[in-house]
Amino acid sequence: MAKLPTCRWGIITTGLISSWFVADLVLPRPDAKAHHIIQAIGASSLRKSQAFADTHLKDTPHHKPALYGSYAEVCADASVDCVYIGSPHGVHARDCLAAIAAGKNVLCEKAFAINASEARSVFDAARRAGVYVAEAMWLRHRPLVADLRKLLYEEKVIGDVFRATSDFQMYVDMKNAPATSRYRDLELGAGSLLDIGIYPLTWALLMLDSKLPGDGNGEGEGEGETPRIMAAQSFVEGIEVTTSIVLHYASSGRQGVVTSTTERKKGASQIVATIDGTDGFVEVEGGAPSHPKSFTVYPKWTGDEKPQGKRYDYESAQQGFIYEADNTALDLAAGRKESAVMPWSETIRVMEIMDEVRRQGGCVYPRERV
Ligand SMILES: NC(=O)C1=CN([C@@H]2O[C@H](COP(=O)(O)OP(=O)(O)OC[C@H]3O[C@@H](n4cnc5c(N)ncnc54)[C@H](OP(=O)(O)O)[C@@H]3O)[C@@H](O)[C@H]2O)C=CC1
Ligand SMILES: O=C1OC[C@@H](O)[C@H](O)[C@H]1O
What we know:
The protein is an alpha/beta fold. The chain has helices at 16-26, 46-56, 71-76, 92-101, 116-129, 138-141, 143-153, 192-208, 321-333, 344-361; strands spanning 6-12, 35-42, 66-68, 82-85, 105-109, 133-136, 161-169, 228-236, 239-248, 255-261, 270-277, 280-288, 291-299, 310-313. It contains ten helices and 14 strands.
């Protein structure tokens, strides 16, 4: 049996997402594609690293990470194979560039940067340093997504796809949020689009294009057609809180309707995306567009009653961060410098689309003002 690759992770920051990422990596599983070791944890203080390890690694004594009171020490740790960056998106470029300068491979949270220009500067640095860098857009790595794309574009289970919709709702009390909160601080990239709107946008890009990077053998063969964008944004306290985007694909006429808001609390379980085709439709169910758990394929609805659908379930003990971690380990083992699922060109394409949405909608970050 082939030996599984091992990735020794250096975790940078001890916020919410780092806790979710680590929780997935340390869960035992029978069908592992790679071994993951939490090798180091770095935070703004040693006390925070210690508290993170005490809380999130207390039941996994075989993970004994080095604990640091800075991010630089994680990057300098020769035992770390890949640095995972869980800081707010406004400082992703800063933290990526520091890790790259130290010669480290990087998996960085979404949104990868504030804009396409920042993303390009990080990839240019990675190219020069010869290290691996990838955006941790976990939705792209989910087996559910690959399976659904096969059904849509190889088996054509709903005929010709003509529309996709997705909406991400999350409540943030913006008026009372502290000025230092990443939901409020524009220097940290506050706004619904970069934080949550990126998922509905990703659903549309994934569901409306027949060929994309990551479809085939891991070499990223599709390029992705960039649709025409029509967008509007609304603001509370100067922060973008609601974004609506229509995407129109010139070659096929396909449309995407994608929205995000931090002004509305979501229910416990919901339909997080829909895909319409000439012969049927698909509803994706889950907790949020970032966290799909199943999908149901329906035949065309013509009568009064909703037709019977076929449901595909993807419930698992992990939240789903394990897939991006596995794929990173496999990329590194194969000597790749870019993710086979989310190559640099795709991160830049998404950032460019979000730049255009913000150009139309009016969300400008302070460092972008000339
Ligand atoms: N994939 C997913 O499902 C999710 C992704 N995210 C992404 O992860 C990133 C972080 O989000 P989240 O974990 O919710 O954020 P938190 O506010 O919970 O944590 C952010 C961490 O970033 C560090 N940090 C570094 N610089 C700053 C700064 N200038 N101001 C404030 N904090 C700073 C702090 O780390 P330290 O511990 O060192 O003090 C802090 O703990 C975002 O980019 C977000 O989009 C978030 C949630 C879910
Ligand atoms: O990526 C995300 O998904 C879940 C949300 O809670 C979070 O704000 C966002 O960053």
